[in-house]
Structures are given as structure tokens and as C-alpha cells.
Prior knowledge:
- The structure holds two protein chains of two kinds.
- Chain A is an alpha+beta fold.
- Chain A has two domains: 6-222, PmbA/TldD superfamily (PmbA/TldD fold, 2-Layer Sandwich); 225-472, no CATH class.
- Chain A is 20% helix and 40% strand.
- Chain A is globular, with a radius of gyration of 24 Å.
- The N and C termini of chain A lie far apart (53 Å).
- By secondary structure, chain B is of the alpha+beta class.
- Chain B folds into two domains: 2-205, PmbA/TldD fold (2-Layer Sandwich); 216-438, no CATH class.
- Chain B is built from ten helices and 18 strands.
- In chain B, helix 1 (2-14) crosses helix 2 (73-93).
- Classes of the chains: A alpha+beta, B alpha+beta.
- Chains A and B meet through strand 2, strand 3, helix 2, helix 3 and strand 6 of A and strand 1, strand 2, strand 3, helix 3 and strand 5 of B.
- Bound molecules: zinc ion.
- The site of zinc ion has 3 residues of chain A, from loops.
- Zinc ion is lined by residues 245, 250, 446 of chain A.
Amino acid sequence: MIANWSRQVEQFSSQCEWVGIREYREVTDTLSARNGKAESTESKLSHGVMIEVLLRGQFAYAATIDLSNKGLEQAFEKALAMAACCGKHKLFSFTTNARPPNRGQYTTSVERRLDSLSFAEIQNKLINISLHQQTSVDIIDSWAMAMLVHTQIHFVSSNGADWQQEFSIVSKDFGVTARKNNESQSRSYGFNGLQKGLEDLDDVILEQEAIRIGSQAVELLDAAECPSDSRDLILTPDQLYLQIHESIGHPLELDRILGDERNYAGWSFVSPEDFGNLQYGSSLMNISFNPATPTGMASYTFDDNGVQAEKQFLIKDGLLLRGIGGVESQQRSNLPGVASARASSWNRPPIDRMANINLEPGSSTLKDMVSATEKGILMQTNRSWSIDDYRNKFQFGCEYAQLVEDGEIAETVKNPNYRGVTTAFWNRLKLVGNEDTAQVYGSPYCGKGEPNQVIRVGHSTPSCLFSDIEVFGGA
Amino acid sequence: MKNNFNQMIGPLFSGLFADEQLVVNFHGEQSLFIRFNKSKVRQISDVLQMELALTLKHKGKESSMTIPVSNNLKADVENGHLCLAKLRERISELQALPFFVEAKNNGTSNSVHEGNLLSCEEYLDIISSETADVDMAGILISGTTFIGNANSKGQHHWFESSSFCFDYSLYNDKEKAVKATYSGTRFTRSEFVAILTDARTHLAYMSIDNKVLPPGKYRCYLAPAAVSEILGTFNWGGPSHSGLKRGNSPLQKIDDEGLSLSELFTLKEDFTLGLHPPFNAEGEVACESTDIFVNGKLENLLTSSRTAKEFELVSNFANEQETMRSPVVEKGKLAKQDILKELDNGIYISNLHYLNWSDSKKGRITGMTRFACFVVENGKISAPIKDLRFDETIYNIWGTNLLAVTEFCETEVSTNTYFQRSAGGNRCPGMLVKDFNFTL
Ligand SMILES: [Zn+2]
């Protein structure tokens, strides 16, 4: 990496309207520890190119691991032949204006490079966390994991695009299971991945968090079951990010609205007429697409169609304005979108994906939210998630909750869950936390697409208060 | 690709030092993907990929590294040696694993499932002409996948399978849909049309106005595809012996209280399905068939050799995650033509969607109805339903509330293509259950 693909692009360009080469190289290191002992360690190098051809209005894609001249020529011939045989069957006729000739680069800013510690040093940190989590004899299992990703992308096209992006991502999670008298409870930090360097694995902070996780699991063993009723609900960022993801991010994807995902991930309750008209949530709700979020897992300068990405409001004061869709979906739907066409790797074509989809902070402190609650519950850390294929009826479960009574935090309860319907839920948004309550969460596991693709997404959100939500406990 | 694999591993095994063991796992595929929307081509792509995962073991320590295989033998072997050197350096610093599994010679096997696949043009001609008058969305997957495993003790396994799968749904103008799949080794117009015609017939029922049902408990028929979804979620932690020992099992209640599920429920791992090779990443070969539940009684959990070491159990050569790779639910006695009559008044559920444990330690699953689901009144289909959310335990679905199991099963081939086209599938019957709990 990173080869100069301009010669091949020039060689191929005479046979089609447009050709692009996207080289993608990624190293993923995964390390783990359990109960104070080493567990498996593995590295994976993925490296290949996607050749993309535009012929008579149809894009076709051929991916190969054979990076020799012959390998590339074979892939190009395949892409050309596929584009040719789609001619009379194409859904939409594209032109080169769907592939802008941008040039430039993006690199994650890091304090400590991913290779600045050895595998043994990182594994020792994880062993240390798993030991600190063992706060009681009731803890029967204690684990910790870290995943380090280094990605390089280089895109060159026949109409002059030439850009490179380099990402450094650190993800971590750790947790325990406690068990006593046939009751078992698990508590975890909650998987989180950020664009950062190894400065993210700070021993002092991790040890404190490990002790908190261990103690809260033990606390849950003796906690009462979450009540089943309607009450006000405070969600912290380690749950709210997934609520945003499932009930705002996915339904706003233009390819879902256009029906591309109907057979797999699903459709959307949002219709084209809703943009500019639908009051998605209360007036406190402001949702942005922000590819420049510091540490956001999906921060970037160019999407995989080569479109320059910039911050846009999707929902302003609760009103739906814009969808999550790249240039192809924008042209097909005539709806406003964002630079969000992304591929999971070299072997998949770009489709509409979330990047960093954020809930903008408001002005309330966590104390304000608790004080404003007469009968409520505060839930933390996602444990279960499910939503229908139109993204209406959802149900979430969390690991840990505390009741709120007359403006004060009261007893801890176990197995907290809540359910609702998307726009009704967001219209019950009563208070939005300030910057101090906000955190950035990232996940590499957002799945959709045929063929299937997982992609990295980021969500920055403050804590929020929702009024009158249906909550319930365990089996 | 077998040549790529064989030619590459020889030099790597001969490059090992004394006391070192090397296990290699190969995955390769040549795949065509055609994505459809409104019966037209939305995206078309072709993938050629190969990778080799090397696990170096030495005196209780091990580490793994996966590298791409580029089709250039000299460069690939060189890359393999560089990878070995890196693993050697890494292992020297790492701590020993507490439950280390030695490489052994678990024998050799060779399984090749040939297919007669069509060209992209031929698929497009048939599919486009047959679906031109209906709104179809879906994906055609066609190609060959290759799975290899070998180790420095002489073990060698190879599995190769050429097949296609067309996974699609048909839509009416009320945004209601019917799901269908056609998979096999030889795509013919007549077989495709037969399945398509069946789906069109079901779609006709969907034109009646939706019936909105209030949440509550309903008598339901779960078609094989719906049972398959529940089985898929159960597979996520359910059969794992390690999960039980680590306090994370939905079967904890069975272990604690000696419960049984319904006598009508029998579940096994059965590799004779032919969709997944019986060897795992260590190259250990599982029995052709392993009983999980027999007539409601838990017989076996899946135990990997690593778990066996940790908890002093006997390994049944499960994979590392201890998931079923080829699950089969036994058929029962309910005849196809009696389903509506036996359902009488209730809901016919063709598909479920987005299932997840809502309380994994208590065996409770939530999810949504999807595609063709109908209200049945007096044994007759009356109207499609507006989608409902269920929240129900496996102890009810496969235990107390299971009324009947169909006398037929359907084989579902995996359409999972995350990272790579995956092998595997399952075989499920339909089930009649009472008091199925809908909450939203
Ligand atoms: Zn997602």
C-alpha cells in the first residue's frame, strides 16, 4: 500500500464511460483476557481492490485479491461484461456526475499509534481489568477485550478523483457475570469504539470503571425487578446512542425509503413527502449528520463515491429535513441527502450508511432531569434491541437501572426494559442534557445490504428525559 | 483454489521449528451478486477472494493471523513465512493460555458439491422476464465457496460447494409483501416459476385491508421460516456449554430446576444436511448427528475442546462459539392441509424479523412479525395483520404451549454474506402454539 493506480485507470478508461479503483487495506487486532488469564489473540489483514465501471448508465463492480496487472485486467473485464449485460435491466441510468473528481486526504489524529504497544502489553492491560472487576466471590466470570483497527483507502478514477483516507480505531468492552442462589446478572462497560490511538486504554480510568462494573453486577443480584408501568425515562448515552441508531438513523436512510432494502433490512415508515413536513420529535430534538465529530467512529472526509462530507442537520427543532443517502439515492429520489455512500470493505459496493448521527446537546444537567422527575427510572447500558422492518415498534433492554422518585434517585432495579413507537417516543422528549452529559459511542456492527455489509457508525449524544414511557421487567 | 491452498501450506509446515504446531484455515469464494429492486438491477458485483488463517501453537501459547492469498504462489508463500515470523515473535512475549488445545491429526476429508451455475446474462434473462409484471426486491447469489483446514500433524480437510440462492420478496401496492427463496445447484426456469407462482398466490391474499389486532395472547401457526428465526436466536448462546458454565445460558432454568420442554420438541445438530462441513477451526470432526433435545429432554450441549479443558467436560468438537452449524428440528404429525383447520382462530405467521433475547438468562425472546401474516377465523384466512411485536420464552414456545409440529420440514440455506458467503443452513418444521404473547 498504497499503489499508484492511475496507469491502470488510464488503460481501462477507453473501454467505458468511467472507471474507478478503490484499494482497501485493513489490519484488525483482537485481544482478550478472562478471569485474570490470557485469552486468544488474533490479527487479520484484509487487502484487495474494487474495480468499478460505468457503462451505458450502469455501474458494475468486480472485487479481487489478485493485485497483479493480470488480476486487475481480469476484474475489469468482468465488471465491463456485467455492466453490459445489465443494460436493458437497469433500475436507473447514472452518469459520471455520481462520481465527483475530488482529491485530498484524511487521517485520524492520534496521540499514541496502534503499534506503540506490543500485544503482550495490551493483553496485560486486559488481564488487569478482568482482575479489578472481581470485586466479590459472587462474580463467576470476568472478561475484557480490545480491538484495534488500522484502515487505509485509496481511490483513483478516470475523471480525476484521487484521495486517500487512513483510520485508527480502538474499541473496547469488559464485563462480569455474578451469580447467587440461582440468580445471575451481567454488567458490562458497553462496547465502544472510537477513532483514537492507544491513549484510549488508560489504566487508571479502566481500573476505576472495572471496579464500578464488578460492584454494580453484585448490586443487581439483590435488586428488585424493574416495575411494569408507564413512567418518565432518563436514558444515558450508552443506551440512547442505540435508540438514535435504530429509530432515527435507519428509517432516514434513503435506500430504505427507495425500497432497496425491503427484502432484507426492511423499508421505512418515512415517506418522501415527510421531508420538510414530519414533526419527528419534540422541538428540543436536533439531529445532525456530522462526519467531523472528534473521535467519532465514522468521521471521514470522503464517502466511497468520493463525495466530500460535511455536517448537515437531518432534524431541526423536531422537524424532519434531510435523509441519509449518498449521491445515487439523491438522484433517484430527488430528496436532500448527505455524503454517506460507504462500502464495508474492498469486496462490496457502496450503499447508504449512517456515519456519525448525533443528537445535539441541550441545556439540562443530569441533576435537572432527575429533579424534574416525580415518578421515573434512569436506565443505563444497552443489553437487548429489536425494532420492526418499518422502524416503528421498538423494544430495548438495559443492564442497570435506578428508580427516580420525587426528584431523587431511589432504589436500583434489575432487568429494565422499555418499548414504544418511534415518532410518539421522540415527541415525548422532555429535556435534553448539556455538553457535560454527552458522550461519543461507536459500533462496527451496523448490518444491512445485499450482499450483507457491516459498517462502522458513531453517535454522540447527551443524556435525555422522556415523559410517560412503557417500562417493564424480566421474565 | 485447492491448489492455492495445498501449494501454500507445504512450505509453511516445513518451515516450522521443533515443538511448533501450525493449524491453517482457508476460505475462498468466487461469487456473483445481483441485487434487484422493482424487478430491475440495482447493483451487480463479482467477488474473488481467498484468505489463509495461521494459528501457531508452541508450548501452551498460541496466536493467530489471517492473510490474503493473492493467486501469486511465490508472493503468497513469502507472505506466509513473514506471518509465521511475526507470530513467533508475538508468542515469545505472550502469556501461556490456561486452557490450551494441542494440535492433533484429526484425519482427512474431501467433500465437493458440484453445481451447474448460470452466467449473469442467463440469470437476468430468466428473472427479468418472469418478474416484469410484479414489484420484486431481492438478491441472487451464485458461485463457489471453498473451505480448507490442515495442520502440521498431517490433518487435511477440504469442502467445496457450488450453488445459487435467489432470496426475494414480492410487493403489492399496499406495501404488503410475500417472501420466497429458491436455492440449489442448478437454476431452471420451471423450478423458479413454480416457487414464484406460489408467492404470487399468497400476495393476492395480501390485497385485503390490514386487520389491526390488539396486543395479547393468540393461538398461532409458525411456518418453518418463522421457527427458523427463533432457532437462529436460540443458537446465539442456547446450545453453548460454556455459556451455561459462565452463567449466561437461556437453559439455566433447565439445569437448575430439571425442567423439560414439550415432548413434541426434538432438536439435533445433523451434518448429513450437507450444507456445512463437520470440521471446526481446529480440524476436529463432529459426529454426523448430535442430539440436543429429544422429546423435550435436554440431552447434550455443544462443548468445544477448550471448554472441555476449562470445565473438565468431554468435547463433542463444537466450534469455538459452540453454536449449531447444521441444526435440524424433527418433524411431527400435523398435516399441511390441516394447518388452518387446527389453527381454527388465530394468526398464521409466515416470517419473523429482528429477533433478540429480551432476557437471555430466562430464555425470553422478542421480535416482530413480517411479510405474509394473516388472521385466521374458523379455519379460513380472513385478512393480513398489521405487524405485531412478540415477547415470549422458549419454555412456552417449545414447552408448555407447543400444540403440534408439522409432518413436513423446509430446508433453509444460509444467505448470510457478511464478510464472505457463509456455509450452513437448517431444517425446520412448522409449529402450532397457543397463547403466543404479543406486547405491542
Ligand atoms: Zn444498524
